[in-house]
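Hi support team,

I've been running sequence recovery on a batch of backbones for a student project. Most finish fine, but this one hangs at about 90% for roughly twenty minutes before it completes. I'm not sure whether the input is malformed or the queue is just slow. I've pasted the structure tokens below so you can try to reproduce it. Let me know if you need the job ID as well.

Thanks,
M.K.
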């Protein structure tokens, strides 16, 4: 009887140890990350047009995740206040809210989305709403280009 109790305790310990180790491993989403060179978010945002159409890898802390479908994650830059959005196809990759605050490596194609004036005004109105600022659509007189990484894969690096 004592031997079976000891064996049961050993098995429970092994299972708990395996779960603890598994929780510390990196989490891969989509195709993962194959590129070896990382483009700094600040460099990317300083010259966004230079990278359009290129497959790149970025690294940052997850500071925003889509609450509806997990279809995007915002990564903080190496410069305070800057972020880059990694957008994935709905349902192909789902970023869980639990990755907030984690370090993320993401890879994909850098894209430029040219907005018309009406859409630019809607985007500006939405930004003003979120920041609590007043918004006057008459002051928006030029179109905007939104840049984002069309993600093919990501790795959440466990700290």
């Amino acid at each position: 009887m004592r031997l079976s109790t000891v064996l049961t305790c050993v098995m429970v310990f092994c299972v708990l140890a395996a779960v603890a180790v598994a929780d510390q491993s990196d989490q891969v989403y989509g195709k993962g990350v194959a590129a070896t060179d990382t483009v700094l978010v600040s460099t990317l945002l300083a010259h966004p047009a230079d990278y359009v159409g290129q497959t790149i890898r970025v690294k940052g802390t997850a500071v925003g995740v889509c609450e509806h479908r997990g279809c995007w994650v915002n990564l903080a830059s190496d410069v305070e206040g800057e972020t880059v959005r990694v957008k994935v196809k709905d349902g192909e990759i789902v970023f869980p809210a639990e990755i907030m605050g984690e370090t993320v490596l993401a890879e994909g194609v850098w894209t430029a989305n040219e907005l018309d004036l009406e859409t630019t005004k809607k985007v500006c109105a939405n930004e003003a709403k979120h920041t609590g600022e007043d918004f006057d659509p008459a002051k928006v007189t030029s179109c905007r280009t939104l840049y984002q990484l069309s993600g093919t894969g990501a790795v959440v690096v466990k700290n």
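--
Follow-up from support: It reproduced on our side and the slowdown came from queue contention, not your input. Residues 26-157 form a domain with the OB fold (Dihydrolipoamide Acetyltransferase, E2P) fold (CATH 2.40.50.140). No action needed from you.
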